[in-house]
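Complex record, two chains
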Amino acid sequence: MNRCKNIRELIPLLIEDVASPDERSLVELHCETCESCASFYKEALSIRKSMIAEKVETPDAYGSELIVNLNRRIDERRIRRRIFWRAIPAFGALTAVVLTVSIFMWENVRQKNESIAALSGNELALNETFFAELSDALNLSNSDEEYEKTVVRYILEDQQQLPIDRYVLASSAMDESEFESFVNEIKSVSL
Amino acid sequence: MEHPKELKENEVTFNQLVRENHQKIYSLLRKMVRSHEEADDLMQETFLKVYKNLSKFRYQSQPGTWIYRIAVNTAINYLRREKLHQFLNLESAYSIREEVPNSPSEELREILRRAVGKLPPRQQVTVMLRIYQELSFKEIAAIMECTENAAKVNFSHAVNNLRILLNKVGVNFESL
C-alpha cells in the first residue's frame, strides 16, 4: 500500500517527463502488476490532456488597455502622495492655531474660575433690594429662593463680556444711587 | 522621493515589462478566477506591485520570474480570501457538480476547472504553472520560492487531489 503511495507520487512526474529513468522503470514495472496504480496512471494522463486542451487567449488590445489603466492609477497615486506631502505643513499650522486658541481659552476660563473662587461669602451676599431690582431689570423670576445666586450666576456665566468681578464685588458696598447706576449700566450693555 | 529623470526611466522600463509579460501573466491569472474582471483586477494589483518595487529589483533573477512570483503571491492571497469566503458560505466540494453547462464536453471542462479551483492555492498555482504555462519545475521552484523537489511533490499531490475530487463527483475519465 505504501509502495502504491510512492508510485502515485511519481506518476504525475512520469507524465510530465521529468522522472529519472530509474523512477520510470520502477513505475512501469509496478503498473504491470498493480491494476489500481495502472488506472491511476490513465486517469492522471486524462486529466493532463483535458487541461492542456484549454488555453486562454488574451483579449485583443488588452495589453494597451492595461498600460493605460496602470499609468492612470500610478498618476492618481502620485497626485495623492503630492497632496499628502503638501498638506502636512498646512495641517501643522492648523494644529498650532487650534492649540494656541485652546490654550488661550483654557487660560481665560482658569482665570475666571480663580476669580470666582476668590469671592468671599460677604462679597456674594449682596443687598437683597439691589438684587430684586437687578433681577427685575434682567427679567429674572425672583420667586426662586436662591434668586440672588441666579442673578450672580447670570452675571458670571451669561454676561461674560462685562467686567463681572468688579460689578459683583462693588455691589455689596453700594448705596442705593450707586446701585441704580450699576443696574442701568448692566441694562445698557445687556438689553 | 524619486528624481524626475529616474521616474521617467522607471516608467519606460515598466511599460516595457508590462508589454512583454502581460499575456503569460493574464493566462495564468485568468485560469485561476471566474471572470475577466477578476483577472484584470489581479493583473493591475500585480503590476502596481511591480511598479512600486521596480527600483528595488536588482536583476538577480529574470524579470519574468520576478513578475510571475508577484502574480502568484497576489493570486494565492486572493484565492485564500476567496476560499475563506466560500467556507463561510458553507460551499462544499460537491458544488463542483452544480450548475454546469449542458454540452457534455463543456460540462466536463467546467467540472475540471472547478475541481482545480478546489485545490489548495499553492497546489493550484503549481498545476497552472506546469500545465498551462509549461514551465520547468526549476522555474516553478524559483517562482514559488521552494526547492525543485518540493515543487514536484506539490504537483504530484495536486494531481492526486484532482483525481480524488473528480472521482467523488463520478467523472468518467474515459470521456475526459
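Note: Chain A has a mean pLDDT of 75.
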